[in-house]
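hi! just following up on the protien thing from before. the input was this:
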Amino acid sequence: MVMFIKILGSGTILSDNRNPSGYLIKSQNHLALMDCGPGILNKLVYLNVDLLTLSTLFLSHFYIDHYSDVLPVMMRRYLKNQQINRNLTIFGPVGLNYWFDMQSRLHGDWLSDNKPRLIEMHESEVKWAGWTVKSYPTIHTDNSIAFKFIKDSKSFFYSSDTDYDTALVSFAKNSRLAILECSHSDENPVKGHLTPNKAASFINNAVFEKTLITHIYPENDTADLLKRIKMFSNRDILIAFDLMELEI
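and the predicted 3d structure came back as:
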């Protein structure tokens, strides 16, 4: 079973040449989004993705650069088919139901009368498109989570935003593919995020087969970023760019 991954956003809210977070994943005939920040709807329209076929959203946390286009995506779907969002499943961190209820109070009937299936995750396990999907808390917000997709010998880890954490490294260990954040430089670290040194330690200790570096702030988005990570790791590492495609 093959999973296809399209990078819709490899940057941050400050990036000029990268979209904030968003990833389109497809397995068999199942289509899902992991995070859905500003500009993701436009990327999906540009790619001619039929949003009515979207079945699932995986949300890592409730910072606006990771979720702001969830409602625009849902409204576009609603305006094409008023009941379609009842067929949508949203997996997200603890607080998902509260977040959706607050949005419904503001937006009214179009949202509240066509409520998707909402499933909160912490240290949880669910099924999607034949894959087992596990979640684990990250060092970022009170309820932020990472995801790991597992099918037979294949596994795919998405860190979303996180600082270095040995427990999360153990959770992610031996993934065939990892999409790992590396937000800031070692000279200007920010709590709750990885730097090249920390990302390399994560990669080495998790023993990833291949790693894609993403969520790159402008000050860290330099021509030597890969070299700076490779100073501490000799594993297979790539720097993400928007509209890049991968498969596992």
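The radius of gyration is 17 Å.
The mean pLDDT is 97.
cheers
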